[in-house]
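Take a careful look at the protein record below. Let me know whether the structure tokens fit the sequence:
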Amino acid sequence: MENPISPLKSRLLPALKRALSHPLLRDYRALLFLWCLLGLAAGLAKMSGGRHNNFLIFRYVWDHVVNRLPLYVEYPAEYFDHNHYGPFFSLIIAPFSLMPERLGLLAWVVALAALLWWAVRRLPLRQGQHVFIYWFCAHELLTALFMQQFNVATAALIVLTWVLIEKERDFWAALCIMVGLFVKLYGVVGLAFFFFSRHKGRLLLGCAVWAVVCFAVPMLYSSPDYVWSQYVAWFERLQVKNADNLFAPSQNISLLGLVRKVSGSGAYPDWWLILGGLVLFALPYRRIGQYRYRAFRTMWLASVLMFVVLFSTGSESSTYIIPFVGICLWYLCVPWKRSGWDVALMVFAFVLTSLSPSDLFPRYVRETWVRPYALKALPVVLIWLKLVWEMNFRSYAPLPPEPARQEDAAGARPAGAEGSAQR
């Protein structure tokens, strides 16, 4: 029986290749300019309407730490809602806080876009694969930049953690992990790459050193007692936020939220789903023989990028720039040819996940079905489950003798060099 997706694949892929074949659309500098332009567009749109509340929350973190004011209470004269980032974030946001407000906003969103562009550029991919990621993620990036949040940087930090471990620069990979952890907790997922490190001791030492640095640095411009009290308050604030997120229409856009909102039940603890997700996530670790293949290790990066959002009650629409990079890697970085069904999943993700928050999507469907039931998460859930199945049952060994596979083959470490990764 003919695959019903085959006609879609046969028409879509050639058209997409033709559209991206123009040299300007494949030029790294042009794509950097485009992503920074998206940042400028998002910043100017929010600036003109005075709707940059998230940036105001971030901006005042620096002032509040310097003046030793509580970080996790309301300041209605300055912004609405609460800050949910750690005290270390004051150092990250400091340069943008010291600028005039509007200039700081523009610089912040452009810096976020440029950081993720640079992180993707560091991935060991062919130019066409980089280009695909830049274009496929552009709309989702714009959604994230409109919200001015740290999610774009979180995606970059996770990617850079993997890249630095691949390059055996584990001490600096540990810095990415700790910065992500001390700003928004998400960065801790970088430890999932521990088993692929050839310098595990160096990675653990780096985590310990950078944890101390990230914890203590805010004390230099405030005080030890103040910083300690704010870490305690941060933990308490996150507990409150977690409870508030469960049925919030703009929060918990995750697998957890999808199940809870579709079922309409609040009578069960999320940790049951989280535990099941962790089991599925960890199962591919048993395939030690696959560790030597770069494609397999890249799938771990893809899985981490999706998992961290799918199993968090704090996930919101702007968070999906993180798994969107992951689904691109899932599609691009395997040694076999993707099927028509895989193409359909990517189209499904682009339409439902990326376009649904925008005016390009039917408003009635968005307000009646997508938002109330967290359906933005559904395509990523399906892709992640398929990825988990592939990681458990498929081989990621390069497929010779196709010339196009030679670069992938170069990503396989010599068998003798895998001892530390396999132990």
Observations:
- The chain has two domains: 28-126+150-245, 246-413.
